[in-house]
TrEMBL record:
SUPFAM superfamilies per record: ISP domain
The protein's name in its UniProt record: Nitrite reductase (NADH) small subunit
Pfam families reported for this sequence: Rieske (PF00355)
Gene Ontology biological process terms in this record: nitrate assimilation
Amino acid sequence: MNWLDICALDEINVLGSRIVVGPKGDIAIFRTSNDEVFALDDRCPHKGGPLSQGLIYGKRVACPLHNWQIDLESGEALAPDVGCTHKYSVKVENGRVLLSLEEASLCA
């Protein structure tokens, strides 16, 4: 798997995100209060709202347009809403955030 060095973890605010331009559109990299990182397409499955501008709590992000709750681990909308967004492999090594574009997947 090829890993892209995106930034230092400290360059993403706690409960914040950073946008990376991917080959198929923007990718949002999220940082939780526990310093976990997740990467999803920066588009809500509902109406395409920018998830990077949503509120992060736990392992969820709330879309700023219509408050859909998206699970950061799976990319799936939480009930009663239905839908999902692509997720990407992301990790932190030596304080650096690394992203792989190869393993993009769509939840079932």
